[in-house]
User: Which sequence fits this backbone?
């Protein structure tokens, strides 16, 4: 199968391409700069931008499926990097291009927690994108991963850096909100397995790992992954104090959190079923041993 992929140069995208090639698929990757995937043998690069529909004309021609991964976790309005542009407009443009150019199979990257009554703009725009996918005539499947981890991830590596550099790690609120991190290889495997499985068409999958952690437990697991004993010293910051601080500081790019991100963290990020694993026959990575493999390198 010839697969057209967007967001291929990102953290998930590069793992996805590796899985596609290993499974014998050919890959056509949309890149903004030629040579972005030069380290992959056999990947066809086409230059374009999902936020500019005019750059997508004929780019998908001859492809059998689209894997659409483009997305952001934080807006930079001064650079026109917004949820509306990267989640909604981007999805609309690639859907239209797929329909016009005869591509039938469409796999969409969404996010766990996406729903019609979402509070955050991140989840609201992910929902808008999902709804556009559902309204098309394409054979679609939507994936909603939880927190994705693996070598080169941002979140787990950030926590590891905090643990290594600070004598006490700050925690927003009580630290009891729950997370169910999923390995990037498992996410990629799910997409690739679904490509040719008819029974996955028209389904929306939550994608989580096998273990649920409170945020406090996750910090302890990362500390253990670093070889630093059984836990980490924490200081819990009251939300009534921290929410206005985050709101005031979030426009500074170097500040590590936005109000949307804080809200999503407090909501938790776990899955209510394991249909994703069952339907696609996935063997899910163990979190403690997986992070140990790259945190101690």
Assistant:
């Amino acid at each position: 199968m010839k697969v057209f992929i967007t967001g291929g140069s990102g953290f998930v995208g590069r793992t996805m391409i590796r899985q596609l090639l290993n499974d014998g698929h050919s890959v056509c990757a949309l890149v903004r700069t030629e040579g972005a995937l030069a380290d992959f043998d056999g990947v066809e690069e086409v230059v374009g931008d999902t936020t500019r529909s005019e750059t997508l004309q004929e780019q998908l021609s001859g492809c059998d499926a689209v894997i659409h991964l483009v997305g952001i976790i934080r807006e930079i309005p001064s650079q026109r990097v917004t949820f509306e542009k990267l989640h909604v407009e981007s999805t609309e443009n690639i859907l239209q291009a797929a329909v016009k150019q005869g591509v039938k199979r469409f796999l969409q990257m969404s996010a766990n927690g996406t729903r019609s009554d979402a509070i955050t703009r991140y989840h609201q725009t992910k929902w808008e994108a999902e709804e556009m996918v559902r309204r098309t005539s394409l054979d679609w499947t939507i994936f909603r991963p939880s927190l994705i981890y693996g070598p080169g991830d941002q979140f787990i590596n950030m926590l590891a850096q905090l643990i290594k550099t600070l004598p006490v790690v700050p925690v927003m609120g009580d630290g009891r909100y729950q997370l169910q991190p999923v390995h990037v290889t498992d996410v990629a495997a799910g997409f690739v397995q679904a490509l040719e499985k008819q029974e996955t068409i028209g389904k929306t999958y939550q994608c989580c790992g096998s273990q649920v952690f409170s945020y406090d437990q996750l910090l302890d697991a990362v500390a253990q992954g670093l070889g630093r004993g059984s836990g980490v010293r924490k200081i819990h910051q009251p939300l009534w104090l921290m929410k206005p601080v985050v709101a005031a500081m979030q426009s500074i790019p170097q500040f590590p959190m936005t109000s949307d991100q804080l809200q999503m963290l407090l909501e938790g990020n776990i899955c209510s079923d394991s249909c994703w694993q069952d339907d696609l026959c996935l063997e899910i990575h163990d979190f403690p041993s997986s992070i140990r493999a790259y945190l101690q390198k």
Remarks:
- Residues 149 and 156 are 7 Å apart (CA to CA).
- The chain has ten helices and 13 strands.
- The mean pLDDT is 95.
- The radius of gyration is 19 Å.
